[in-house]
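Design request, tokens follow.
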């Protein structure tokens, strides 16, 4: 049914407008407890049991979550969890509100079931997102949800002031996040990917760690895990260098990978199936470099349960998706979650 709806309705709409319509509906239903429960039951969303996993001392109800980019301002976390995502990563959030790049800035690549975007971190800013998360965490249901926050550099902030910019967001958001992701890998903010160079990345990560720790201490909250998100376009040597920095600083993990600029379709980053092979390679390389205990979040090209299993097989602790959700629709997350929970149950039996 969704395939038909996509072909007849959403495919004919501007991609960003279609996103806004679907996003508003998900958010509205998720805010009504009775509707939320009914939808989860209809979708047969697995919660806990064999599919649950302990990460950073927190129980995740499953290994499959939503990547950053879909819910930039934490406006539909409850609705997205309702659909079957075990954890939701909101953002990318910047220290200051910004409109993002000029439209059009989102395109479907239908032959590859991919997306190309040059959104440019359009969001309401870290103060507004922190306030929204504060209200979410004020309820028992909201506190039970696993929410990551992806933070990026404000476009107008000079690169030399990037560490302070990231630290501002970390300070505001850390008390309400289950983990923070330092995004230095989007291709749509000028100069951002230069921060993946180890000498530039070190002060950013150190500033985020200090700001997050100070904020959680003031709020009498546990320390929040800090991860870094890297691009698929890094060379193997650069992936190794980032891994070594993560180990040196005692960071809590890596998210791999972001969108790729290795295409000839126009400006912006490409996501979806074209990223899968490199995403798997990067996760496998990170696992070898960082050892068995590091938390790795595999993302890029997860079209279904088989792709999620591949990420887990090469060393991912958790798996995320976004692009396939656009193409597959509201049953997608629960379908993948059930498959992974079934795999876990089968392993327990053995």
């Amino acid at each position: 049914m969704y395939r038909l709806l996509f072909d007849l309705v959403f495919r004919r709409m501007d991609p960003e407008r279609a996103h806004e319509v679907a996003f508003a509906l998900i958010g509205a239903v998720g805010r009504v407890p009775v509707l939320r429960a009914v939808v989860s039951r209809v979708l047969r969303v697995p919660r806990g049991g064999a599919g649950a996993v302990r990460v950073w001392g927190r129980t995740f109800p499953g290994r499959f979550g939503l990547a950053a980019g879909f819910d930039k301002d934490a406006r539909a976390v409850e609705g997205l969890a309702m659909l079957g995502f075990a954890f939701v990563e909101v953002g990318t959030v910047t220290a200051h509100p910004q409109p993002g790049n000029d439209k059009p800035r989102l395109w479907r690549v239908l032959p590859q079931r991919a997306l190309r975007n040059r959104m440019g971190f359009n969001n309401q800013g870290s103060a507004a997102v922190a306030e929204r998360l504060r209200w979410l965490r004020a309820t028992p249901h909201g506190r039970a949800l696993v929410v990551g926050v992806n933070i990026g550099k404000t476009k107008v902030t000079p690169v030399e002031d990037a560490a302070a910019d990231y630290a501002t967001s970390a300070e505001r958001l850390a008390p309400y996040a289950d983990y923070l992701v330092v995004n230095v890998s989007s291709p749509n903010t000028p100069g951002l990917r230069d921060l993946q160079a180890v000498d530039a990345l070190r002060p950013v990560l150190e500033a985020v760690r200090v700001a997050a720790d100070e904020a959680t201490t003031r709020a009498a909250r546990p320390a929040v895990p800090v991860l870094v998100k890297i691009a698929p376009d890094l060379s193997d040597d650069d992936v190794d260098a980032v891994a070594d920095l993560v180990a040196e600083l005692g960071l809590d993990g890596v998210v791999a990978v972001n969108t790729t600029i290795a295409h000839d379709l126009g400006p912006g980053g490409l996501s979806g199936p074209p990223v899968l092979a490199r995403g798997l390679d990067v996760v496998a390389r990170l696992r070898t470099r960082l050892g068995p205990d590091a938390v790795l979040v595999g993302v890029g090209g997860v079209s279904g349960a088989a792709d999620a299993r591949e990420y887990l097989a090469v060393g991912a602790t958790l798996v995320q998706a976004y692009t396939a959700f656009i193409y597959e629709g509201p049953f997608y997350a629960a379908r993948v979650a059930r498959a992974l929970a079934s795999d876990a149950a089968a392993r327990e039996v053995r």
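Comment from the thread starter after seeing the answer: thanks! The first strand starts at residue 53 and ends at 55.
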